[in-house]
Design a protein that fits this description.
The complex is a heterodimer.
Chain A lengths: L10 E12 L2 E12 L3 E5 L6 H8 L7 E6 L2 E2 L5 H7 L1 E3 L12 H9 L7 H6 L2 H21 L14 H13 L5 E5 L7 H16 L3 E5 L3 H7 L2 E6 L2 E6 L1 H6 L1 H11 L2
Parallel strand pairs in A: 3-8, 3-9, 6-7, 7-8
Antiparallel strand pairs in A: 1-2, 1-4, 4-5, 9-10
Helix pairs in contact in A: 3-5, 3-6, 5-6
Chain B lengths: L2 H30 L6 H19 L6 H28 L8 H22 L4 E2 L8 E4 L2 E4 H23 L1 H11 L1 H6 L4 H27 L1 E2 L3 H16 L4 H25 L13 H4 L13 H15 L8 H5 L1
Antiparallel strand pairs in B: 1-4, 2-3
Helix pairs in contact in B: 1-5, 1-8, 1-9, 1-10, 2-3, 2-4, 2-8, 2-9, 3-8, 5-6, 5-8, 6-8, 9-10, 9-12, 10-12
The chains are: A alpha/beta, B mainly alpha.
Chain lengths: 263, 328
């Protein structure tokens, strides 16, 4: 990953007035937030605050009821999931969703699909360019496995890997799509302290390599320590968006979330 | 004659054809959990197109092997187009509909294709021209024809090729990812529509070749042949574990063998004269080595479906299928 030179405060993602209703439940109400290039942006909130719903709207899994999203200077079309991936948003899942019956390497190679021309006929005819491209994909996938630290499990089936490695593999698979924005849905969920610390190093490394990260997390300590800016959702509404130290001191936030969840 | 060895050879031949057709069912099922009942008709149309090409070219200047090859090369794109159109027109609009809707549509498409073939090629059975000399080789007391050898070799080559494609190329990797989870594959940038269309097209191409093999082996084709052939190949796919490529191949071969063994021995086994329980009523029929056979080899179709029933009762997920039960 090369360091991309970015001007500070350049907006990468601008979501405004996002709404989503499930039956009678207003899961998201007029949520607006902006993510700048190169930052780690945290999205926190109590259980059921709408964090994952926002994620699913952003990545095209849910149809939004209202609002606009512009990404990298263009409106984000959400016709089908792969167009979102093509625009440059990749994600991981709260409950890991790997391709369990495929090897770690193959999982990452799926992510490379988007950035290469993979035609059926090319694959069958084995042209020279085709073979070279396939070798490049394999190499890049191996690099990514190495980057997240699971290179030694390249040929293990994803479902047979241990939990922490599966989380890392999901990140590698998302990185394979060459995203501008990496969205991590509770990456530390279910991790022990050592694994969380290692995850933190990994995410900091991603920022160091110029990637923009959107982080949804329950682990308040991790979010506060890692993120450049944090937004807090409560009952589907954004109640605060600022740098961690300001968010921490916001009375609304303390009332809604930190005051009760911070053991 | 060595019935056992002979029926093994015959069973392997028909089994190979079943296996190739079953691959078409199992691939589509693996990716979108749809049983494409129209696949048998795609195979039939492949045979019909080949028939037309061969009859119009035979007697001309071209050597016979070239004609046969031209027939295959013509049948493949026709079937691929039909496979693509089936997906595009009939199934894609129903992708998110309740599962019964695409299933009924599949049966409808099967009927439509069969009757289109009826309009184009007529209602009479067609004698599939045997333009290539078909020498027969003896193995012990059994024999194997060069058509049989070609069918078995070609089928195994296609099965190996497909396995290589699915397990070794990146398009195959995208296909397996789509089969495991369409939405997640989409989020990782895989264009699901493209992968699903490709699955239909590849299955149809295999079906076209299977159609030509069927015609060359049985020598007779008919616009309704897709129905029984499709049902048997579908049984083979279920037997092996639907959605599982290796399962379809194994299921097809097994089904062919069981059918061949069944039809080879059913006459002998149900010959009442060899059982001493023959009542006085049969004395007339049994004297001088005569026999009274209850079921002849025309009952061979029973075995495929008997096997399907047994599988559904005792091992619903099929011989190699585990993923189906996981999904359910």
């Amino acid at each position: 990953m090369t360091q991309t030179m970015t001007t500070a405060n350049e907006v990468l993602l601008d979501a405004s007035g996002i709404g989503k209703k499930f039956g009678g439940v207003q899961a998201l109400k007029d949520v607006s937030l902006t993510i700048r290039r190169g930052e780690i942006y945290g999205l926190i909130g109590p259980n059921g605050a709408g964090k994952t719903t926002f994620f699913n709207v952003l990545t095209g899994l849910y149809q939004r009821d209202g609002g606009e999203i512009s990404f990298a200077g263009a409106p984000l079309t959400l016709e089908s999931p792969h167009t979102v991936a093509a625009a440059g948003i990749a994600r991981t899942f709260q409950n890991i969703r790997l391709f369990g019956n495929m090897t770690a390497l193959e999982n990452v190679m799926v992510g490379r699909h988007l950035r290469t021309r993979a035609g059926v006929f090319g694959a069958m005819l084995r042209t020279k360019t085709e073979r070279a491209e396939e070798a490049a994909i394999r190499r890049r996938a191996e690099e990514l496995l190495h980057y997240v630290g699971v290179a030694e499990h390249a040929n293990s089936l994803a479902r047979e890997m241990c939990y922490g490695d599966q989380r890392r593999l999901e990140i590698a698979r998302a990185l394979a799509t060459e995203p501008k924005l990496l969205a991590l849905d509770e990456p530390a969920a279910g991790m022990n302290a050592t694994e969380t610390a290692a995850l933190r190093t990994l995410i900091e490394g991603l920022r160091g390599d110029g990637l923009t990260v959107l982080l949804i997390e329950h682990d308040v300590k991790l979010v506060m320590g890692l993120c450049d800016r944090v937004a807090v959702l409560d009952y589907g509404q954004k109640i605060c968006e600022d740098v961690p130290s300001v968010v921490r001191a916001n009375p609304k936030v303390i009332e809604a979330y930190i005051g009760t969840a911070n053991e | 004659m060595d019935i056992f060895l002979q029926q093994i050879i015959n069973g392997l031949t028909t089994g190979s054809v079943y296996a190739v057709v079953a691959l078409g069912y199992t691939m589509v099922y693996g990716v979108i959990q749809l049983i494409n009942f129209a696949h048998g008709e795609v195979v039939m149309i492949g045979a019909m197109v080949a028939f037309t090409v061969i009859t119009s070219l035979a007697g001309g200047a071209l050597p016979a092997p070239v004609i046969l090859l031209t027939a295959v090369v013509a049948a493949i794109p026709v079937c691929m187009t039909i496979g693509y159109l089936l997906e595009r027109i009939a199934y894609r609009p129903l992708r998110h509909a309740p599962r019964l809707a695409p299933l009924i549509t599949a049966i409808g498409m099967s009927i439509i294709l069969a009757h289109l073939a009826l309009m184009v090629w007529g209602r009479n059975p067609k004698a599939f021209p045997q333009i290539i000399a078909n020498p027969v080789f003896n193995i012990g007391e059994a024999s194997i024809s060069s058509v049989q050898i070609s069918i078995i070799l070609l089928s195994f080559t296609m099965m190996a090729g497909l396995s290589w494609f699915v397990y070794r190329t990146r398009f195959g990797i995208a296909m397996r990812a789509t089969a495991e989870d369409v939405r997640i594959a989409g989020l990782m940038g895989v264009n699901a529509d493209k992968v699903i269309a490709a699955t239909f097209v590849i299955g149809a191409a295999l079906g076209a070749v299977a159609g030509v093999m069927y015609g060359s082996y049985y020598g007779i084709i008919h616009y309704t042949m897709g129905f029984t052939l499709g049902l048997k190949a579908f049984s083979a796919a279920v037997l092996g574990g639907i959605g599982n490529l290796a399962g379809a191949m194994l299921g097809g071969l097994l089904l062919g063998l069981v059918e061949a063994m069944g039809s080879g021995y059913i006459g002998e086994i149900t010959d009442l004269c060899q059982w001493s329980l023959t009542s006085s009523m049969l004395v007339e029929q049994c004297k001088d080595g005569g026999n009274f056979v209850l079921f002849g080899s025309n009952y061979q179709d029973v075995f495929a479906f008997l096997m399907l029933i047994l599988v559904l009762v005792f091992r619903p997920s099929g011989l190699l299928g585990e993923r189906v039960s996981e999904r359910a």
